[in-house]
Structure formats: structure tokens, C-alpha cells
Write a structure and sequence with these properties.
The chain is an alpha/beta fold. It is 33% helix and 15% strand. The chain has a six-stranded parallel β-sheet with strand order 2-1-3-4-7-8, with helices on both faces. It holds the Pfam family Abhydrolase_6.
Length: 240
């Protein structure tokens, strides 16, 4: 199976370096993606928006044969979902890594600080504590050293979707964070918000085939629990 690995904000294809060997050892072909404007820290990101990142992944899907699996972390989940909307007949499964589908008109995050037209990795104090679980000082230093500013448009541009068939594509949500002691697992938090009809899971509620997999840690399991994340992705692919 061809597996396209879409990184989240501030990351390039190297975010998946600890995940790729497990998937390839199982016989899959991986395609970790470096999205437009993220080739270098000083690359020109002016004018690059969410649609450009979606177009780049759609082009990769079109260059491959047969069905593919999309794996999207964080903001990469919004990109994966838009690609599914564009090519619903080509996507065998979407695996959301601490992410979920972003609905029509939604934005990734319009509260991030913009600096000279880009969105650099913020200070750690700007993140919620659950984001940072298991992200040690060493991992934080490594992450910051490899981080690449995100194009502003990726955060602020509205999502555009047109094809209802996207909702039929099987989806796996690898749930990592949870924000209250009243939940005994990340997926329990998701389910509670689904039951409440919370806006941030409204699009997820429209999917016709989805499952949760718990992987309790912070927002970056590819750094904090890479072996477990690789196995979780592998099992999702194997169920496809």
C-alpha cells in the first residue's frame, strides 16, 4: 500500500523519520511530504495557502497507482480531508494523528501569532499543557531546531469541500490529548464532545465510517511515542 504522510505545522517530511521504517518493513511504500514553502526555513512562503498544500498532495495521489492511505498529523489532517474530498475514489483510508476532519469554511487556527507574514513555532508557553505531555526539554530543543515557519494562509484560509463521498472514506482517529481528569482516555473526550454536538467535532460526526485508537501522550506522538504511533498506523492500514 502507498502511504502518504502529511506533517503538521512547522514540520517537513523528516517528522516521519521514526515512523517510516516500521511501515516499510511491513511491505508498504511510504511518501513523507514536505509541503510548499517548507523546503527551507528561509523559503519564500508569500502567497502560499491551504489550497496549495492540498494541491501538492492531490498531485502526489494522482502520480501513484491504485488506492492510497493518507496519514495527517494536526493541520495535516485538514489537508488530508480536503484531498479526500478531491479524490474520494482514490483514498482507501485516512489516519488522523491527533487531528480530525476540517469542515467547509473552517480554518486550522486563526489565533496563531503572525510574524512578517509567516507563523513561526510559538514559544512553548503559548501551548496548552496537554499539548506538551511527554515532550521533554531535549525533544523540545530538537523540535525547535528543525521547525520551519508555516505559511500564514495554511492557518487562516477557509477549507473548501464539494464532494459528499468524502464521508464514506474509512477513517481512523489516533487520539492522543485530553484536557480533563473526568476522561479516562483521549477517545472518551472525543466521544463526550460528539455527544454534546460540539462544533469542533461537527465534521467528524458526519463521517459514516470512523474509529478511535487511543495513544495517550501530547500533541506530537511521532516524537514522544514513535514506536507506538508507527504500530497504530500500521494496524489501521492493515484493517483497510
Amino acid at each position: 500500500m502507498d502511504i502518504i504522510l502529511i506533517p503538521g505545522a512547522w514540520l517537513d517530511a523528516s517528522a516521519w523519520d521514526d515512523i517510516v521504517p516500521t511501515l516499510e518493513a511491513a511491505g508498504h511504500t511510504t511518501h513523507p511530504v514536505t509541503l510548499p514553502g517548507k523546503e527551507l526555513a528561509d523559503a519564500d512562503r508569500s502567497g502560499i495557502g491551504l489550497a496549495d498544500h492540498v494541491d501538492a498532495v492531490v498531485a502526489l495521489v494522482d502520480a501513484l497507482e491504485g488506492k492510497v492511505v493518507l496519514v495527517g498529523h494536526s493541520a495535516g489532517g485538514a489537508i488530508a480531508y480536503a484531498v479526500t474530498d478531491r479524490r474520494p475514489d482514490r483514498i482507501a483510508r485516512v489516519v488522523y494523528v491527533d487531528a480530525g476532519p476540517l469542515g467547509e469554511g473552517g480554518v486550522v487556527n486563526d489565533e496563531v501569532p503572525v510574524v512578517n507574514g509567516d507563523v513561526p513555532l510559538p514559544d512553548w508557553s503559548q501551548f496548552d499543557e496537554p499539548d506538551l505531555v511527554d515532550l521533554t526539554d531535549e525533544l523540545r530543543a530538537q523540535f525547535r531546531a528543525r521547525s520551519i515557519p508555516e505559511p500564514r494562509g495554511v492557518f487562516f484560509d477557509p477549507q473548501h469541500l464539494t464532494d459528499d463521498r468524502r464521508r464514506d472514506v474509512p477513517s481512523t482517529i489516533i487520539a492522543s490529548e485530553y484536557y480533563s481528569e473526568k476522561y479516562d482516555s483521549p477517545s472518551a473526550m472525543y466521544q463526550d464532545f460528539l455527544d454534546q454536538g460540539a462544533p469542533w467535532v461537527a465534521e467528524l460526526a458526519t463521517l459514516r465510517d470512523y474509529e478511535f485508537v487511543d495513544l495517550p501522550t501530547g500533541h506530537w506522538p511521532m516524537f514522544t511515542r514513535p514506536a507506538d504511533l508507527a504500530q497504530a498506523i500500521l494496524k489501521a492500514v492493515d484493517r483497510t
